[in-house]
Structures are given as C-alpha cells and as structure tokens.
Amino acid sequence: GEKISNPIEQVLRNKLVINIADNTLLIKKDGSKIPINDSSAPIKDEDDNVTGVVLAFSDITERKRSENALRKSEEQVRMLLNSTAEAIYGLDLEGNCTFCNPSCLRLLGYEKETDLLGKNMHRLTHHTRIDGTEYPVSECRIYNVIRRGEGIHVDDEILWRADGSYFYAEYRCYPVYSEGVIIGTVVTCLDITERRQAEKFIKNILESVGEGFIVIDKEYRILSANRAFCEYVNKVSEEITGRHCYEVSHYVDKPCYEQGEECPVRYTFETGTPHTVIHTHYDRDNKPSYVEIRAYPMKNESGEIISVIELVNDITERRKLESQLRQAQKMEAVGLLAGGVSHDFNNILTAIVGYGNLLKMHMKDDDPMRHNVTQILASVERGANLTHSLLAFSRKQVMNPKPVNFNNIVESVYKLLKRLIGEDIELKTLLTDKDVTVMADRGQIEQVLMNLATNARDAMPDGGRLTIETERIDIKEEYIKSHGFGVPGIYVLISITDTGSGMDEDTKAKLFEPFFSTKEVGKGTGLGLAMIYGIIKQHSGYINVYSEPGEGTTFKIYLPLIMAKIEEPVKEDIITSVGGTETILIAEDDDAARELTKTVLQEFGYTVIEAKDGLEALEKFMENRNSINMVILDVIMPKRSGPEVLNEIRKAKPDIKALFISGYTADAINKKKLLEEDIDFLSKPFSPQVILQKIREVIERK
Ligand code: ADP
Ligand code: MG
Fold first, then answer.
1. Residue 605 to residues 549, 584, 611, 625, 699: CA-CA distances in angstroms?
2. Residues 222 and 229 sit within 8 Å (Cβ to Cβ)
3. 397-407: per-residue pLDDT in tens?
C-alpha cells in the first residue's frame, strides 16, 4: 500500500539520508500483518546519485501489545474510580489533593474535581474533632502516614462536608511510592454513620441491662463483655476480653468442666441448643451466692456455631426475696388458721369452764370426783393461756396503743429483765439520744421484750451478754428491695442481741411459726416468737432475725416512728407510782406465771408470799393474816377455786384487798357468775406494768 512505499519513496525523492518510522505494517508471505519499526537509507554512487534504498526493520508486535495493555488498564482504573462507592482521593506531600473520584465529591459534598484539586484536604475535611476541639494538622493521622510511611485504618473519626455537616468515616490511608520515595498518599473512605448508630444502639442496650453479657469463642475466650459483667467480676473490660472465661470468673487455669462443674457453654457448643445452669458460689465467709448462667448459640450463615453468648445473672437477691415472700405467705396462712381456730376454741373452753364449775358447785367437799373436776378446770385454763398467745400471733388481740418513747419502755423493764435472765448474763443497753417515739401498746411491747429475753436466757445456759439497742433508721426503697419488706419511712430499730447458741438455717426458717420449739417438752411452748411476730405486725412493724450456729442471735424490730408528744403524766404514773411495800399473797398453780408475778412484785418493793393451790393459799393466809395486805388469786386452782378461797379469807379478815386473775376474759368469767360483779379482775397474760398499777389501784381504793 501507499504507507509501505512512502518511506522509500521519500528517501528516493527527497534524497534524505535516513527515514525511521514505527507505524508501518509489514505483510508477511502468509498474508498476516505485523507492526514494524523500519528505517530506510539511500544507496549512492560516486557522483552522489541515489541508486537504491536500504531498508532495515524490526518486529514491534510486543511493544504495541504492552502499550495497548497500559492504555486499557488506565481506562479500567478510571472506570473503577468513577464507579466505586468508596470515596478515593490522593494527596501530595503537602496534603494537597492530587486527584479525587466522583464518590469522593459526592461524599464530601463538592460539585467538581477542581473544587478539591490542589486544596489542602485536612483544612477542608478534617479540621475539628467530634468533641468540637481543633484537630491540629500535626496530629492528623492521614498526614502522619507520609511521615511514618505506614498505612492506617481508622474508624472513629469524623469528616466534614462542604456544607459544614459531618459524618462518621471509616478510612484507610496508604503511602504512595515512586522509585522508593514517598510522593504522597491515597485515601479511601466510607460513611459509616448508620452502622455506627446501629452498633451504638446495640451496645447501649447491652450496657444498660443489669445482666452480665459475654461472647465466648470455641477456645473459651471472651470476645466481648458488657458493663454488668465487668462489674460482676470486678474487672475492667481490658482485663476480660481475650481471656479464658474460666480464668476470669472462676480464677482457675483449666476449663471448669474438667473440674466437674457443669458448663453451659460447653453444652451449647456441643448441642447447639441454649442451656441454663445455676452455680452456687461461696465467698470468704462461706456465704452462698447464686448465679444463673444462660448460654445461647451464635451461628454463622452456614449454621455453624461460631461462638456462645452467655448471660450471667446474680439471683441471690431474687432467691432471698422469694423465700421471704414464701415465708410471709406461710405466716399469713398460719395466722389466719390459728386466729380462726383459737377464737372458736376460746368459746369452747368458756363452755367447759362454765359447766365444770357448775358441776363442782354441786359437789360435796369430800366428793371423790372433786379432784378430777379441779384437774379438768386447771387444764382448761392452760388451754386458755395458749389461745391467748395464738390470738396475739394472729393479731386478734385488742390493742391499746399510745405514743410511747421506746427507750422509756426499755428502762422501765430493765430491772425485771435483769431478774429474768439471772446473774450469769450481763444486760447491756445502748439507747439512742434521738427521739424514738412509737405508737404502741406498752403492755404488749413489754411482753415482746420479756419473751425475747427469756429465749436469750435459754440460749445462754452458761452465761453471756444480752444487749438491747435502740436507734433511728431511715428505710429507703433500696433497703426495702434488699430486705424484701417494708414501707419507706423513719423507723425505730430495736436490736436484741445475745451471745448464745445461735441457730441453724432450719430453725431460722421456722422460728416464728406457732408451736415451733427446739426445747424439751414442758420447757418450750413454741408460742413466744409467734406471739411476738403477731404483736409486731399489729404495730405495723417488722421483725427479723440474724443468727449463725455458735455465733449468737440478733433480733431486729422495726417500729414506725411517730412525731407525737408523749403525755408526761403517763410516764409519772408508770414509773413512780407502781411500787409498794405491802405484803401480798399470790395463789397461782402455774409455776412459771407465779414465779414471774412474784419476781415483778419483789422487784417493786413488795413482800410476797406464794401458794400453789387454793388450800395452800388458805393455810398461808391464816399463818400470816396480820401482815398480809392483799391477796392475788387465780380464779381456777386445784383444791379450792379463787372465789372459794376469798370467801374463807373474808370470814377471817373482811376488808382484805383482793384481785382475781385468770386465763379467761372477765366477760367469760362474769357470764358464768363465778365472781361478784364489782370484784377486781385481770385477764392473763398481763404485763408487769398492768398488774403493778392494778395493785396500787386496789390497795389505795378506800
Ligand atoms: P420456745 O421458746 O417456747 O421454744 P419461741 O417461739 O420463743 O418458743 O422460740 C422458738 C424457737 O426459736 C426456740 O425453741 C429456739 O429454738 C429458737 N430461738 C428463739 N430465740 C432464740 C435465741 N435467742 N437463741 C437461739 N435460739 C432461739
Ligand atoms: Mg420462748
């Protein structure tokens, strides 16, 4: 073709010395064409006439091919840059933009390349941190890539757009080398605002829940842990992630299942199903805590378990509350039952005592059956005493509450308690200076203290110390949550602590139940604490016990504080006018009751003569008729009843002062016409204050 002849012709025509071309094609014999690089030179004779042409050429197929390839790959790179969603831009050594792709313009909010080319990208996009502080270029991580020559991957920074808004960016930045020298960097960048928000949302959820949350891999390493878990094991998350779960929560260097512990994580890895176990942990004091551990499998797309999620929950509190609730419900049920039964039972007893006495009245003094009837009546009275305690437990007792200072109650029974517990036991009181006024039935509260002191005495057969403390405490919601009882408010807390035998868990669980006693038959009725429980409940208070075997016992009683002024005369009455120096005969067949009354009276100055049945009462009276100022007679006693005894005594000393006591109510006694209408009467059990006052009332009446 023309092209091929051209260089030769040019040589011939123009007499050029040499012509080089590299865009010619050579047609080979087989008809195929190859690109050649050719040069032609003239051949001349002596007269310098051109006589021919020398043609030299070489095959440049390879060179052409690589030139094409380069052009193609450049086109491809351009296409890639134009189509990728990642923003990509290049920087020179000064941090000025050398190129940018359309995604970069879009992401950063610029219109055309020239908005960025040659501009300092740090100043445009990276000047301020998320917290609003300045981001100096000297600290800029992108800029530092140039200095350090190492690529970076950042996902916790923001980039600023042209319009002044920002987004969370994940970017990578690599140095660009040319012949071993860094000439700039290239940055690829994505907007991860949405992803971050989703992550933050999930992280927020996990951090907010109270349950410990960890992810464990197949090697039993913790991949991540939330705040609750960190708190639970008392470590910071750096000390947890990457460690074996058994190191972190069990302080051992072998998996727990190798040591016989049931491992829910292992189970879940093996079976692919969730698994729950409850572990019991013991602290230094051997106190158990219960941890519920739930394991769930986490699978990848192909269904393979890649890790296990473990939820850790301390359920000690929950267990405690559940058992407290069960206990409270049980007491409530038993209380209802006891209340119902004892109410009916009381009526039955009233009938028995009525007819029994009628029977006895019609019997001759020497009737051989008389003794049996007396025994029946005495037993009935014991029954009446029992129903009284049961009624107290089921909160059916009539209450007579008044504002009283609790310290004052403690002070007034102090001497009595001291006598009750004996010389081997030290009695200590630690009373607060604060006002501790409560709305209470003084008599009932005294009974509570006496019963607690009696129990403490029984628990300290070899002596010890009994401490009574009062203080004021503010019961708040948290306290209620952890103790499982109460209404918020200010309470008077009375703690009664002994250094005695203490109690095991079984005893503690049952001790407020009526008829629960660990004491030998005849010694304990099992009604003391049941009664206390009822009385405290009736006072809108709470009672708790803290005790360990061998470590003594503390009972804590909470009574709501009231802001009332105590009428001073009440105190006067009770504290100063109760005692006396008279001589009193007490006739009472119940040893414990007689002993108690005697103690009370002696404590308050009286001389006491005691008798354990009607006949002995008559004999003792006759022996001491001149010194005895007053008689206290149980209505129902063996041998002679109270009214019978008084009849006899009146014959000898008509103006003798007398007081009847009985397990029945005055109502029941009067109905059966056992007593004259205007006779003084006290229903058992009574508090020391009540009988002391009654005695003064009877003696001083003209
Ligand atoms: P009782 O004293 O008639 O046995 P309580 O209801 O007063 O009945 O007490 C019930 C049981 O609680 C007692 O038998 C005893 O086992 C236990 N208990 C009560 N108080 C104490 C204490 N301070 N120390 C040890 N055990 C006690
Ligand atoms: Mg008792």
1. 40, 11, 19, 19, 14
2. no
3. 667 788 999 99
Q: Is 695 helix (H, G, I), strand (E, B) or coil?
A: helix
Q: Report the pLDDT value the prediction gives residue 10, as an integer from 0 to 100.
A: 66
C-alpha span between 302 and 116 (Å, rounded): 45
Integer CA distances (angstroms), 596 to 416, 454, 608, 682, 687, in order: 9, 11, 12, 15, 10
562-607 pLDDT tens trace: 887 665 544 434 444 478 889 999 999 888 778 878 888 888 889 9
Pocket of ligand 1 contains residue 159 by CB under 6 Å? no
Helices 642-652 and 614-623: angle between axes, nearest 10 degrees: 20
Task: Report the chain's mean pLDDT, rounded to a whole number.
Answer: 85
Q: How far is the CA of 518 from the centre of ligand 1 (A)?
A: 7
Whether ligand 1 lies within 6 angstroms of the CB of 497 is answered as no
From the CB of 392, is ligand 1 less than 6 Å away? no
Q: Would the pLDDT of 444 be above 50? A: yes
Atom of ligand 1 at shortest range from CA of 523: 3
d(CA 339, CA 394): 5
Least confident of 21-30, 92-101, 203-212, 651-660: 21-30
- SS3 label, residue 319: helix
Burial class (CB in 10 A: 0-12, 13-18, 19+), 221: middle
257 or 588: whose pLDDT is higher?
588
Largest CA distance in the chain: 191
How would you class 399 by CB atoms within 10 Å of its CB: exposed for 0-12, middle for 13-18, buried for 19 or more? middle
- How many angstroms separate the Cα of 589 from the Cα of each of 268, 594, 646? 71, 7, 16
State the SS3 of 64-85.
HHHHHHHHHHHHHHHHHHHHCC
Q: Which residues make Cβ contacts (< 8 Å) with residue 132, sequence separation at least 6?
A: none
Instruction: Quote the pLDDT of residue 428.
Output: 94
Q: What confidence score (pLDDT) does residue 525 get? A: 80
% of residues, the chain, pLDDT over 70 = 91
Q: Is the pLDDT of residue 196 over 80?
A: yes
pLDDT for residue 561: 92
Ligand 1 atom with the shortest distance to the CA of 527: 6
Cβ of 389 below 6 Å from ligand 1:
no
Cβ-in-10-Å burial (0-12, 13-18, 19+) of 273 comes to: exposed
Nearest CA to ligand 1 atom 7: 528
> With a 6 A CB cut-off, is 224 part of the ligand 1 pocket?
no
pLDDT band at 116 (very low <50, low <70, confident <90, very high): very high
- Specify the residue with its C-alpha closest to ligand 1, atom 11: 517
Q: How far is the CA of 519 from the centre of ligand 2 (A)?
A: 9
- Ligand 1 centroid, distance to 330 Cα (angstroms): 19
Q: Give the start-end residues of each E strand in 453-599.
A: 464-475, 489-498, 542-547, 553-560, 583-587
DSSP labels for 221-280? BEEEE-HHHHHHHT--GGGTTTSBHHHHHH--SS-GGGGT---HHHHHHHHSS-EEEEEE
What share of the chain has pLDDT > 90, as a percent?
37
Q: Is 524 in the pocket of ligand 1 (CB under 6 A)?
A: yes
Q: How many Cβ atoms are within 10 Å of 617's Cβ, its own excluded?
A: 30
| Ligand 1 contact, 390 CB (< 6 A) | no
H helix runs in 49-185, sequence order: 61-83, 102-108, 121-125, 141-148
Q: 382: CA distance to ligand 1 center in Å?
A: 20
